Amino acid sequence: MSAHDKPPHDKPRDEGPDDATRRRWLLGAGAALTVGLAPRARADLLQGATMADLIIRNARITTLDPARPQAQALAVANGRVVAIGSDAEVMQLAPGAQVIDAQGRRLVPGLNDSHTHLIRGGLNYNLELRWDGVRSLADAMAMLKAQVDITPAPQWVRVVGGFTATQFAEKRLPTLQEINAIAPDTPVFLLHLYDRALLNRAALRACGYDRDTPDPPGGRIERDKAGNPTGLLLAKPNALILYASLAKGPRLPPEYQVNSTRHFMRELNRLGITSVIDAGGGFQNYPEDYQVVEQLHRDGELTVRIAYNLFTQHKGGELDDFATWTKMLQPRQGDDLLRHNGAGEMLVFSAADFELFSEPRPELPAELEPDLESVVRLLAQHRWPFRIHATYDESITRILDVYEKVDRDISLDGLHWFIDHAETVSERNIARIAAMGGGIAVQHRMAYQGEAFVERYGVQAARQTPPVRRMLDAGVPVGAGTDATRVASYNPWVALSWLVTGRTVGGLGLYGEEDLLEREAALRLWTHGSAWFSSDEDHKGRLAPGQLADFAVLSADYLRVPDAAIADITSVLTVVGGRIVHGDGDYAGLAPTLPPAMPDWSPVRRFGGYQVGGLVPGLVAQAHHAQGGACRLHAPHDHAAHHAAPSDDLRGFWGAVGCACFAF
Ligand SMILES: [Zn+2]
Ligand SMILES: [Zn+2]
Fold first, then answer.
1. Which of 56, 136, 243, 265, by CA, is between 20 and 30 Å from 104?
2. Ligand minimally distant from the alpha carbon of residue 391
3. Class of the CATH domain delimited by 312-517
4. How far apart are CA 469 and CA 489, in angstroms?
5. In this predicted model, what pLDDT tens digit does every residue of 67-82 receive, in sequence order?
6. Separation of 59 CA from ligand 2 center, angstroms?
7. CA 193 to ligand 2 center in whole angstroms
8. Which chain residues have CB less than 5 Å from ligand 2, an ion?
9. Domain ranges of the chain
10. Of 657, 566, 562, which is closest to residue 613 (Cα–Cα)?
């Protein structure tokens, strides 16, 4: 039955059925019975079989199904939603089912990040100390110090993006001096967005960088007067130097990568994510680096659905890569948990424009057109969907010139091809994308780089970056995402907050009222909107009979909390395909427990991932100004937090602005 079938009586959704309705329901007669039931479930009901595996009742459900936008309860069987409606209606299916009382909480379709780097992020998650969500540099440095103290040689401590200096009360990064003081012997690698990396002296030694190391093309090694590297590496504008340096660090062995990926997926589940579309990534090779997710899939341990695109790693050899892969894989090969989703986000290196708003826009080379045409022609012939990274309108113009040329010979319509990022896309190019049946995947990179963009291009130019409303008005499919884990955090609520409020994580308002999205519209992009980008829009992203049973019960009511509280929302209960994959608070213990993060010194054990509310659990609430008023965060100090303290105490102790001695 279609999700659009109208119920015969439109009773208020939060009321139970009257007796007559109830009788019809029980007898299995009449159209009323079929409301909200999938065909198979209806057949089971008629046979008196047990209907549901899982029921959530007493919820405020936002279904995003136009036929029934609100509901109170839903039932799941065999991984799909089989009924949705009032408590009384759905509880008819209760015998034999696990019933969970949502206690009036908001329940939404599971979030779908249509542009993230989960596979790469998962391989490394357990190695990374994350500053995502930390609100003061003082806290961040206390975390760093605590981690340095327990990290054994020759391991590194790495903070690999997901934060920006503007999120800190101090509005700055640490200095190299401060990092060296905290970590005289342990290599520390700190990546800020796409623009710079800070390496302490131990990390420079581990990388083998000295006065004889030349600057790579597009990158710069800052040097002191004697020509020795200071530890600051800059993308000018190519971030290869940053990633190549990171790649010199120790890696996790494969069984640890499995554990690490599980922890990363659970972290995403904690934030209500149930699906992602993985955009590949530099240094992420197919098929080698996909073995971990394939193993997790075989073992039934994926807790996030993954559709993955393949990213070429060979400058000059892009066509060969795709020629090989189109022989190995069919479009959409896989299943609803792990599926191939075509090519990208790198199709050809000559089309890659780096999203570094603190630097001038890069001019792309003349090879772009011939390179891209050969690859897109091949993909279109094989009916492979494809995505392409494109930040600036100037790049998009040239990309669309190529696509139109190919489209005249082989139609691209129906392929679900799309442009990623598109911060400065023009109205004209949006129309060209619409005309060829393409989509646009947007992310909250501006929430992390908005200040840099405004500084270079001005307030006016920043007002529609990206112009999401215009895209929607033009009828272009729009999906939402994060582009995590480096240039932005993976937290979807930060991205929803940005869509709704137009503010950066540093608090700068970027957009006019007319360009902001209503909360439900933003949620739609994050669910049903993103589903189009893996061709899953028929069965994912809404809650209605027949849809995949992917949803999240929220810690606070997304539709009612103040704007400022949106970014602090988490999920208290996350369900993927009818399986509980995360539970918190009242629902803690409902999800299977994970083995502890490996290795035992993993920052994840102590600090977890995103610091929701800016509070850092596990940090010492030791008075760092206690001794003679000197700041013991500065060297030489041993401020490391050795006692866990309730996070509330921490905030009370350090206050909203953190350690003031870091302000200058
Ligand atoms: Zn990209
Ligand atoms: Zn990306």
1. 265
2. 1
3. alpha beta
4. 23
5. 999 999 999 999 999 9
6. 35
7. 12
8. 279, 483
9. 312-517
10. 566
Distance separating alpha carbons of residues 501 and 462, to the nearest angstrom:
14
Start-to-end CA distance of the chain, whole Å, equals: 64
Residue with the two structure tokens 């959530």: 56
CA of 462 to the centre of ligand 1 (A): 19
Write out the residues surrounding ion ligand 1, Cβ under 5 A: 345, 389
**For strand 305-310 and strand 273-278, is the pairing parallel, antiparallel, or unpaired?**
parallel
Give me 143's structure tokens.
């975390």
Nearest ligand to the C-alpha atom of residue 420: 1
Give pLDDT, residue 414: 96
E strand map for 437-495: 439-443, 478-481
> From ligand 1's centre to the CA of 99, what distance in Å?
42
> Residue 114 to residues 106, 152, 419, 480: CA-CA distances in angstroms?
23, 37, 11, 6
Distance of CA 75 to CAs 5, 27, 578, Å? Answer: 18, 19, 9
Residue 139 backbone dihedrals phi, psi, to 5 degrees: -65, -45
Give me ligand 1 centre to Cα 421, in Å: 7
- What pLDDT digit, counting tens, does each position of 329-388 carry? 999 999 999 999 999 999 999 999 988 999 999 999 999 999 999 999 999 999 999 999
Q: Is 19 exposed, middle or buried (0-12, 13-18, 19+ CB in 10 A)?
A: exposed
Mapped onto helix, strand or coil, the DSSP state of residue 360 is coil
Render the burial of 487-513: b for 16+ CB within 10 Å, e for the rest: bbbbbbbbbbbbbbbbbbbeebebbee
The whole-angstrom separation of Cα 443 and Cα 146 is 32
